[in-house]
Design goal:
Radius of gyration: 21 Å
Helix content: 25-40%
Shape: globular
Number of helices: 15
Strand content: 15-25%
Largest sheet: 8 strands, mixed
Structural class: alpha/beta
Number of strands: 16
């Protein structure tokens, strides 16, 4: 039994069942035993692989996207480039190298990383050495100051949410408690939640991503006043619906979310329709969501792959082609279709790259 599982069992015995959001928060962010606090989970040797780890092209194009936004903002002399959940720092390092192709942009930037894990902060510092002197922040609010361009790749999916199940005429909260054998098990609150009046079929599960909505609203409110834009890339749905999307990943495979708390990654699918609505309510303009495939195609992934392949060995060219296919793969589980891209911006900005006909500047090959 893991140390965190033993602690959770004691906690439930003392205080009663946990909400799904509290369970997720403890599994991922417990100060001693939390998943993200104790390890580097990224890459082929970790529990999952993100787009920046698949290919340098991803981060490079995001960097040029940010530079194009800066130009649309009127090329302010000072702007914060903020990344939420920067992983190993791979995306930011690739983005900064590409950004050097745009005169003046690199000099205007200060780099800010929102990261709670001391292990990952150390990992992020290595690829950024010589490229940036980043400031790290525990929370988003402290990172926001003045004009800002915010990047969040696979960040919203790790934020805790609550779940409710339609039983009879009401919605009862889904909880993590103990079964007769003393093992972690899902259950339901004894009484319905009176504040939810949504109509749905019997047994439907409603997810309430309040933490993610708060993040989007906070960023949207800031850029609507101070200027800038935010780019959210994550797996999820373009339209709201019902269903249990809580999942665990360990060693690149799906796992039982209750089996090894603190030892597996826990995520949920992002409801992009609700995220867009939160951005609009906070005063931001909304662009998308688009599929990752369409977004990357619009900002020049094919052209970048061709430019890299032209100077590559046959083995390198094959790897570039494989990465291209993986980033744009269609189908229900393909990254190109499952992942969506949503941008939020100051209402005064023109259309953003990837969502209209704006093209990115040429990158040096």
């Amino acid at each position: 039994m893991s140390a965190l599982k033993a602690e959770l069992i004691r906690l439930i015995r003392d205080e009663g069942p946990l909400s799904i959001s509290r369970y997720m928060a403890l599994c991922l962010g417990h100060p001693r035993h939390g998943y993200y606090m104790t390890r580097d989970p990224f890459g082929a040797q970790g529990d999952f692989t993100t787009a920046p780890e698949i290919s340098q092209m991803f981060g490079e194009l995001i960097g040029l996207w940010a530079a194009t936004v800066w130009r649309a903002m009127g090329e302010p002399a000072s702007v914060r480039l903020i990344e939420l959940g920067p992983g190993r720092g791979t995306l930011m390092a690739d983005a900064l190298r590409a950004a050097q192709a745009v005169p003046g942009f690199r000099e205007a930037l200060s780099v800010h990383l929102v990261e709670m894990s001391p292990v990952l902060r150390q990992a992020q510092a290595r690829p950024l050495a010589g490229l940036a002197d980043p400031a790290w922040h525990d929370g988003i609010a402290e990172a926001l100051d003045g004009p800002a361009i915010v990047i969040a790749n696979e960040f919203l999916d790790a934020l805790p949410l609550d779940q409710f199940m339609r039983i009879g005429s009401g919605w009862r909260e889904r909880l993590v408690g103990l079964d007769a054998a003393g093992e972690l098990a899902f259950g339901l609150a004894a009484e319905p939640e009176p504040a939810i009046a949504i109509v749905a079929p019997e047994g439907a599960i409603l997810e309430q991503p309040l933490a993610a909505l708060d993040v989007v609203a906070t960023i949207s409110s800031h850029i609507a006043q101070a200027g800038g834009a935010a780019l959210f890339i994550d797996y999820g749905s373009a339209r709201s619906g019902f269903g249990d999307t809580l999942q665990a990943m360990k060693q690149q495979l799906y796992a039982d979310p209750l089996a090894e708390p603190g030892e597996a990654d826990l995520t949920v699918h992002v409801d992009f329709e609700r995220m867009a609505q939160a951005g609009l309510r906070a005063g931001a303009a909304v662009h998308g969501p688009a599929t990752q495939r369409d977004f990357l195609a619009a900002i020049g992934l094919a052209q970048r792959a061709q430019a890299l392949s032209a100077k590559a060995t046959p083995e390198q060219a094959a790897a570039i082609s494989t990465a291209f296919d993986r980033l744009t793969e269609t189908g229900a589980t393909g990254m190109g279709e499952l992942f969506k891209v949503l941008a939020l911006s100051h209402p005064g900005l023109p259309g953003l790259p990837g969502f209209d006909l704006h093209r990115l500047p040429e990158q040096q090959t």
